[in-house]
């Protein structure tokens, strides 16, 4: 099969190559991928940590080529969306059936490929914050893949959404179309405390956002767009004066259970137009270097999709 493999001898760090087909374990289905979406984290960090010849990639959508031998998961021929720690940038991938969601027939598999890391991360962050109706929810890094999904999902669940972007003038209108009630440049601009924070930037944003949590508020750290030290000032964790019972948490997506139903739900929402996948770049995988450069340089506000067929 063809795949994008790590190759440090070429400028992009990747090249198209022929590699052996994967051999699924009994609890895995073999998927023929139609499209994959690229995430900043894998482009910036994962490729650098992989040996030459490795096939990276977390997100892919396609069709079941061969159902799992243990009888779990979808049948052969089913359109699906998949998540795994590698192997997505290839024509075929073997995936645990617990990490497969089904896709409505006829859906754009390129759009669906944006769902696994970005959509599922946003959904899990909001689950951790708790019931959303009437709550004030802050989303930092709101123009990225996870941020865009978080704004939409929080809005649909009845939250008052405040989106943070480095350039509100340029991105304010699009974020409001997604459901943001307010658009600001930094957490310190907040006028009132918030009940929950979807924190995707790190550094000073995380510190400032935590300082603006209301009593019982919860900040969930799910991204580190900036590589800055996180230093809290003295007294940051005092619980008096309306700061009682505030919390910070983080999680690892692949350690979460029940991701298959999450992927199915998100795929259905994207397929019927209830969620905007926010595709900022799309092309064939022979143009992967162009997408990789745009992501590394933070020139994309949204998702990059590679069509593999």
UniProtKB/TrEMBL annotation:
Alphabetized SUPFAM superfamilies for the sequence: GroES-like, NAD(P)-binding Rossmann-fold domains
Residue span, Enoyl reductase (ER) domain: 9-306
Name the record gives this protein: Oxidoreductase
Membrane-spanning parts: none
Family annotation (SMART domains): PKS_ER
A single GO molecular function term of this UniProt record: acryloyl-CoA reductase (NADPH) activity
């Amino acid at each position: 099969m063809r795949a994008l493999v790590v190759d440090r001898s070429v400028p992009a760090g990747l090249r198209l190559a022929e590699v052996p087909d994967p051999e699924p374990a009994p609890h895995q289905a073999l998927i023929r991928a139609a499209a994959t979406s690229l995430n900043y984290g894998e482009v910036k960090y994962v490729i650098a940590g992989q040996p030459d010849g490795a096939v990276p990639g977390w997100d892919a959508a396609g069709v079941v080529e061969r159902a799992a031998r243990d009888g779990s998961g979808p049948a052969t021929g089913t359109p699906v969306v998949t998540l795994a720690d590698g192997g997505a940038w290839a024509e075929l991938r073997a995936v645990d059936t617990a990490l497969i969601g089904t896709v409505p027939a006829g859906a754009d598999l390129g759009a669906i490929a944006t769902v696994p890391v970005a959509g599922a991360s946003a959904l899990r962050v909001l689950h951790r914050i708790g019931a959303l109706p009437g709550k004030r929810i802050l989303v930092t890094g709101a123009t990225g893949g996870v941020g865009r999904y978080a704004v939409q999902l929080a809005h649909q669940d009845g939250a008052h959404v405040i989106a943070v972007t480095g350039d509100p003038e340029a991105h304010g209108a699009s974020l409001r179309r997604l459901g943001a009630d307010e658009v600001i440049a930094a957490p310190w601009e907040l006028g009132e405390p918030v009940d929950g924070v979807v924190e995707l930037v790190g550094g000073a944003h995380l510190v400032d956002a935590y300082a603006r949590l209301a009593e019982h508020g919860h900040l969930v750290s799910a991204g580190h767009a900036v590589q800055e030290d996180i230093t809290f000032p003295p007294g940051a964790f005092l619980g008096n004066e309306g700061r009682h019972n505030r919390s910070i948490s983080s999680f690892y997506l692949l350690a979460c259970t029940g991701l298959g139903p999450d992927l199915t739900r998100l795929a259905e929402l994207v397929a019927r137009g209830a969620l905007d996948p926010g595709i900022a770049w799309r092309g064939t995988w022979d143009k992967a270097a162009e997408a990789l450069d745009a992501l590394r340089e933070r020139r994309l506000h949204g998702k990059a999709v590679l069509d593999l067929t």
